[in-house]
């Protein structure tokens, strides 16, 4: 178990048993984050429900949604989110080769111009103050349409909430991707890192 800023507690009860069973089925283990969040089960349940709702949105291409979420997680520094999304890319049938390259998307040759614009937008949303420009929005609006741009924006906003909470609580990667045999994630280039 990793060291978190709020120590994990024992997950108990009927809902806790279900949570542990589902976690082991999906990840092969119960994430440390579950034990941390179990101090307030209602909050965990609501956060998971919100995550399922976000995951059900369907106006934005699934690959673009994943790349945007991973780019946001990388900009914020949430290793748990990056690892989890990379691991889940296999379950969603996404392009794992591209997913593993997201941390260094600026220097990687595997991404299309649209994918690059989506990740640039995601990173710009993570800056304080927000670095999204009229030009970024106009280009994406033209290529994606209004519903997909709205979804992109709110997916990145949701990732900001999740990733910043995980970083603040000291929740880190548990190597889900490595446990299922995926090659390691590419490491971010320090010369091209987005300002935070």
Short note summarizing the structure:
The chain is mostly helical.
Q: What's the CATH superfamily of the largest domain, by name?
A: AhpD-like
Q: Give the helices and strands as they follow along the chain.
A: HHHHHHHHHH
The CATH topology of the largest domain is given as AhpD-like
What Rg, in angstroms, do the CA atoms define?
17 Å
Mean of residue pLDDT values: 91
**How would you sum up the global shape?**
globular
Poorly predicted segments: 192-196
The overall strand count is: 0
CATH class of the largest domain: Mainly Alpha
Going by CATH, the architecture of the largest domain would be: Up-down Bundle
The DSSP helix count reads: 10
Beta strand % = under 5%
Number of domains: 2
Largest sheet: none
Question: Portion of residues in helices?
Answer: 55-70%
Distinctive features:
10 helices, mainly alpha, 196 residues, 2 domains, globular, AhpD-like, disordered C terminus
3D architecture notes:
With 196 residues, this protein is an all-alpha fold. The chain folds into two domains: 9-56; 59-196, AhpD-like (Up-down Bundle). The protein has ten helices and no strands. The protein has helices at residues 13-27, 32-37, 41-56, 62-76, 79-91, 96-101, 113-126, 134-144, 146-169, 176-179. Helix 4 (62-76) packs antiparallel against helix 5 and helix 7 (113-126) packs across helix 9 (146-169). It starts with 12 loop residues before the first helix and ends in a 17-residue tail after the last helix.
């Amino acid at each position: 178990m990793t060291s978190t800023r709020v120590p994990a507690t024992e997950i108990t009860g009927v809902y806790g048993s279900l949570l542990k069973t589902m976690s082991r089925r999906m990840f092969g283990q119960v994430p440390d984050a579950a034990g941390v969040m179990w101090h307030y089960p209602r909050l965990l349940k609501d956060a998971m429900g919100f995550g399922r709702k976000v995951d059900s949105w369907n106006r934005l291409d699934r690959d673009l949604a994943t790349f945007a979420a991973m780019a946001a997680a990388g900009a914020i520094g949430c290793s748990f989110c990056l690892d989890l999304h990379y691991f889940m890319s296999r379950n969603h049938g996404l392009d794992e080769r591209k997913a593993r390259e997201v941390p260094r998307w600026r220097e990687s040759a595997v991404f299309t111009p649209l994918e690059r614009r989506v990740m640039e937008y995601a990173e710009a949303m993570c800056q304080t103050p927000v670095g999204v420009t009229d030009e970024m929005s106009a280009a994406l609006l033209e290529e994606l349409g209004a519903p997909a741009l709205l979804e992109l924006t709110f997916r990145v906003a949701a990732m900001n909430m999740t990733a910043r909470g995980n970083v603040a609580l000291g929740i880190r990667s548990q190597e889900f991707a490595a446990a299922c045999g995926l090659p390691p994630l590419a490491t971010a280039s320090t010369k091209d890192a987005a300002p935070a």
